[in-house]
From TrEMBL:
<keyword id="KW-0863">Zinc-finger</keyword>
<keyword id="KW-0378">Hydrolase</keyword>
<dbReference type="GO" id="GO:0003684">
    <property type="term" value="F:damaged DNA binding"/>
</dbReference>
<dbReference type="InterPro" id="IPR010663">
    <property type="entry name" value="Znf_FPG/IleRS"/>
</dbReference>
<dbReference type="GO" id="GO:0003690">
    <property type="term" value="F:double-stranded DNA binding"/>
</dbReference>
<keyword id="KW-0238">DNA-binding</keyword>
<keyword id="KW-0234">DNA repair</keyword>
<dbReference type="Pfam" id="PF06827">
    <property type="entry name" value="zf-FPG_IleRS"/>
</dbReference>
<dbReference type="InterPro" id="IPR015886">
    <property type="entry name" value="H2TH_FPG"/>
</dbReference>
<feature type="domain" description="FPG-type">
    <location>
        <begin position="211"/>
        <end position="245"/>
    </location>
</feature>
<keyword id="KW-0326">Glycosidase</keyword>
<dbReference type="InterPro" id="IPR035937">
    <property type="entry name" value="FPG_N"/>
</dbReference>
<dbReference type="GO" id="GO:0006979">
    <property type="term" value="P:response to oxidative stress"/>
</dbReference>
<dbReference type="GO" id="GO:0008270">
    <property type="term" value="F:zinc ion binding"/>
</dbReference>
<dbReference type="InterPro" id="IPR015887">
    <property type="entry name" value="DNA_glyclase_Znf_dom_DNA_BS"/>
</dbReference>
<keyword id="KW-0255">Endonuclease</keyword>
<dbReference type="InterPro" id="IPR012319">
    <property type="entry name" value="FPG_cat"/>
</dbReference>
Length: 245
């Protein structure tokens, strides 16, 4: 790969991997790794990071391009990431060590997450959003999975039983995998789709059909109770008072 940093903020890292062979990619939670032999480029998009890519010759530089990769057939630009750095094997191990199990990875151990959950008095939603407990599950997935399980997001994490954690972990992974395949987040069961309920589709910049996320004051799709909202761990939280007792 030919690697550069037009913006300049990744200049040393780009020099370290320029003209090296990209041998593979992997992801843990929200962290992406491009592997170049013993070195890896670690990218976390954060709120504003974005990749653009295409075939053939790369276009002229537009905006603040942190990282540009050019191969024989494709090019890729990265703008505005929260993290873009080169890691050695020890750095990769340290990164993975501070992250919890990822529901998208089949070899992840959900029991490792539950050991943290069962000892915490914090709200269950806040604990599940902690990337050191569960890697990759963002706000939409966490709130929607809790709704589907009938668990209020403010419930103390330690009250979650092993019998409840197993299905919750499985459902979280299933929703995340479906989102990867479809390119959008849909969390409602087939009985609650717009077609099944003869209702208008949801209109929101995030897209997708959901039960509670960003539906404050709107009727619950199951019981009709207005969806509640509040602030939890600095994030807006949503739930149904009736369905999540």
């Amino acid at each position: 790969m030919r690697v550069s940093s037009p913006q300049g903020r990744f200049a040393d890292g780009a020099t370290a991997i320029d003209r090296k062979v990209l041998t593979g990619t992997s992801a843990v939670g929200k962290h992406l790794l491009h592997h170049y032999g013993d070195l890896a480029v670690h990218v976390h998009l954060g709120l504003y990071g974005k990749f653009t890519d295409g075939t053939g010759r790369p276009p002229p530089i537009v905006g603040e391009v942190r990282l540009r990769m050019v191969g024989n057939r494709r090019w890729l630009d990265l703008r505005g990431p929260a993290a873009c750095e080169v890691l050695d094997p020890m750095g990769v191990d340290l990164l993975k060590g501070r992250l919890g199990p990822d529901p998208l990875n089949d070899d992840s151990d959900p029991d490792r997450a539950y050991e943290r959950i069962r000892r915490s008095s914090k709200a269950i939603a806040a604990v599940l959003l902690d990337q050191s407990v569960v890697a990759g599950g963002g706000l939409i997935f966490v709130l929607e999975t809790l709704f589907r399980a009938g668990i209020r997001p403010t419930a103390p994490a330690r009250t979650l039983t092993p019998a409840a954690w197993g299905p919750l972990w499985t459902d979280l992974g299933a929703l995340m995998r479906e989102a990867v395949v479809n390119g959008r987040i849909d969390t409602v069961h087939s009985a609650h789709t717009p077609e099944a309920m003869n209702r208008p589709p949801r209109v929101d910049r995030h897209g997708g059909e959901v039960y509670v996320y960003r539906r404050a004051g709107q009727p619950c799709l199951i019981c009709g109770t207005p969806v509640s909202t509040g602030t939890l761990a600095g994030r807006n939280s949503y739930w149904c008072e009736e369905c999540q007792r």
